[in-house]
Design goal:
It is built from 3 helices and 5 strands, in the order αβββααββ. With 119 residues, it is an alpha+beta fold. Helix 2 crosses helix 3.
Length: 119
């Protein structure tokens, strides 16, 4: 059921502590941790504690949680000292867009120049 932890979901396992992660921030509704395959000097994932497969389904069901994720992205950028120079936030939605874990998540990327259009 949407919103409920999924036994086969990597990110649900990180939320529950079954799989370790380098957590940089945690709130009542979110967990933020360093990406294990960083694409920039700062690459942090912000995930909701509730399970939805992508950003669109999360936004439809839990719009306040999406706001929490975006708020945390800004706080992470400030903590990582990339807010003054610029950073990127990315929701990949679907395999064709590069989503590999089907639990909604936001990438916070910074610490180097980020070209447009992205990869």
């Amino acid at each position: 059921m949407a919103g409920e932890p999924q036994a086969d979901c990597l990110f649900c396992k990180i939320v529950t502590g079954v799989i370790p992660a380098t957590v940089v921030r945690e709130t009542e509704t979110t967990v933020a941790f360093r990406d294990i395959n960083p694409q920039a000097p700062t690459h942090v994932l912000v995930i909701p504690k509730v399970h939805y497969p992508d950003a669109a389904s999360l936004a439809e069901a839990e719009p306040t949680v999406v706001a929490d994720i975006l708020r945390e992205a800004g706080r992470i950028a400030a903590d990582e000292k990339i807010d003054d120079h610029g950073y990127r936030v990315v929701f990949n939605t679907g395999a064709g867009a590069g989503q590999t874990v089907f639990h909604a998540h936001l990438h916070v990327l910074g610490g180097r120049g980020l070209q447009w259009p992205p990869g």
